[in-house]
Specification:
- The strands form three sheets. Strands 2-1-10-9-8-7-11 form a seven-stranded antiparallel sheet, sandwiched between helices.
- The N terminus is likely disordered.
- The chain folds into two domains: 208 residues, DD-peptidase/beta-lactamase superfamily (Beta-lactamase, 3-Layer(aba) Sandwich), CATH 3.40.710.10; 121 residues, 3-Layer(aba) Sandwich (Beta-lactamase), CATH 3.40.710.10.
- It has 358 residues and is of the alpha+beta class.
- It starts with 26 loop residues before the first helix and ends with a strand.
- It contains twelve helices and eleven strands.
- The chain is globular.
């Protein structure tokens, strides 16, 4: 999620609040709630994909949207970037615990000792830098600027959600693969998964030299739906393995154990204090195993994988009112999806869970 100025959660104007329902929500209730949000919040449209046990329960557009409507997905980009990098882990070409300086020797001192794992979990101590948004620059030039700046903190000492460390990770992908970041994403994730509409240098951020691995991708319901289908399949889709099961599960593990995350603006917006690699951990079990992980973005794009229900889905909107409104509003809709699944197809069994969010 790309956090905009301010902290906390702004009040929502739409009517998709479970408390407004007279009983447990159904998918018909959910349809009405999404239609109400589109109308009340003056959104162009929305789209919803819900799949459980291989059955598609919703693949539907609302307003002017259909499942092929392409929108900017903001920080849902992060999940795609991590997956791209994890293909290199699977090939043994790098390790999550490699220090940054191993691949980018311009990083020295404190920032050079930060690990790739810390880049992807917002614990690297690397300070934010606006060069990530400079479309006249490049990933190489931007990371050289980042390398020269003073560290914000000691690696591993704090969780500070942002975008800059992902540009460093994107540059590492370029160095290791010998291709552009966009080419690496297309060859390693988009093509094998079957994503045809997803790009980091599309119409929303038209530069291929300095894409924003944390936030510049655009996608649609069907494309990102295939991505979460692959993750739900523990790295495989349509009989083709894209990531190892170990890499997928590593992305879902709590990477911020022992850190107090509650002061972070993004945590205050999402209400989720626990984070994996490029993804939030919305629901966890008592043994801290990830049960539902999501990759929400500032405009309300909200994809998830639900291990407890053997389900996955994507809620798509392009809500420009700011992340402190758009993200909690979409999160409320997704929580209603989970409740509707339980009402219509049965609640999951297993150990007790903790659900985070607003």
């Amino acid at each position: 999620m790309l956090v905009l100025a301010g902290a906390g959660c702004a009040s929502s104007s739409h009517t998709s609040d479970p408390a407004a329902l007279t009983g447990p929500p159904t998918f018909v209730d959910l349809d009405h709630a999404i239609e109400a949000r589109v109308a009340t919040d003056h959104l162009p449209g929305a789209a919803l994909l819900v799949v459980r046990n291989g059955d598609t329960l919703r693949r539907q557009g609302y307003g002017s949207y259909d499942p092929t409507t392409v929108v900017p997905i903001a920080s849902a980009s992060k999940w795609l970037t991590v997956a791209t990098l994890m293909t290199l882990v699977d090939e043994g070409r790098l390790s999550l615990d490699d220090p940054v300086r191993k691949h980018l020797p311009e990083f020295r001192g404190v920032t050079g000792s930060a690990t790739i794992r810390q880049l992807l979990s917002h614990t690297s101590g690397i300070a934010q830098n606006s060069c990530v948004w400079d479309d006249s620059s490049s990933l190489q030039a931007c990371t050289e600027v980042i390398a020269a700046q003073q560290a914000a903190g000691t690696p591993g000492s704090a969780f500070e959600y942002g975008n800059t460390s992902f540009s460093v990770a994107g540059r590492i992908i370029e160095v290791v693969t010998g291709t552009s970041f966009e080419q690496a994403f297309e060859q390693r994730i988009a093509e094998p998964v079957g994503m045809t509409a997803t790009r980091f240098d599309g119409a929303s951020y038209p530069t291929d030299a300095n894409p924003v691995p944390a936030a510049s991708a655009e996608s649609d319901l069907d494309d990102y739906g295939r991505f979460v289908q692959m993750l739900a399949g523990r790295g495989a889709i349509d009989g083709r393995r894209v990531l190892s099961e170990a890499s997928v599960l590593e992305m879902e593990k709590d990477q911020v154990v022992g850190l107090d995350t509650h002061r972070d603006d993004a945590v205050r917006t999402t209400g989720i204090p626990t984070y994996g690699l490029g993804a939030w951990r919305d629901v966890v079990t008592a043994d801290d195993t990830g049960v539902i992980v999501s990759g929400n973005g500032a405009y309300g794009f909200y994809p998830w994988v639900d291990r407890a229900r053997n389900a996955y889905g994507v809620f798509e909107v392009y809500d420009q009112r700011g992340s402190t409104v758009a993200v909690p509003d979409s999160q409320a809709t997704v929580h209603e999806v989970w409740a509707a699944l339980d009402e219509e197809t049965g609640a999951p069994g297993g150990p007790a869970t903790t659900t985070y969010g607003r």
